[in-house]
Amino acid sequence: MTTERNNGYTIIQSACFDDGCGFAIGSNPKAEMPFVTWQFTVQENDKKMYFCGYYYNAQDYNYARLDYDKRMAKYKNENPGIALISSYSHVNAEV
How many domains does the chain have? Predict the structure, then answer.
């Protein structure tokens, strides 16, 4: 699987619903705020358009993970009937 990247961040966790909307956590150990959560939409060419990024400092990976989980749950609750179609995690030493 190819490593996904966005704005210098490596996507370490991602999940997508069947309506083409999803959420991701990115990591960039060299950034001032090394963790980010994004919402994304899958475009017709299967590329993802990331938006609504929330950034976290090095000590806040757990907050980033909590934000990711909350955003996923909120989206699912606001859109009954959607299904999770893909999910992956590449959490490693960068965390």
Answer: 1
Residue 10 domain flag: yes
**Beta-carbon contacts of residue 73 (< 8 Å; ≥ 6 apart):** none
- Residue 95 placed within a domain: no
Ranking 24-28, 73-77, 85-89 by mean pLDDT, the lowest is 85-89
pLDDT of 93 over the 50 cut:
no
- Rounded Cα gap, residues 66 and 54, in angstroms: 12
Which residue range(s) make up the domain with 26?
Answer: 5-89
pTM score of the predicted model: 0.89
Dihedral of alpha carbons 87, 80, 70, 54, sign: positive
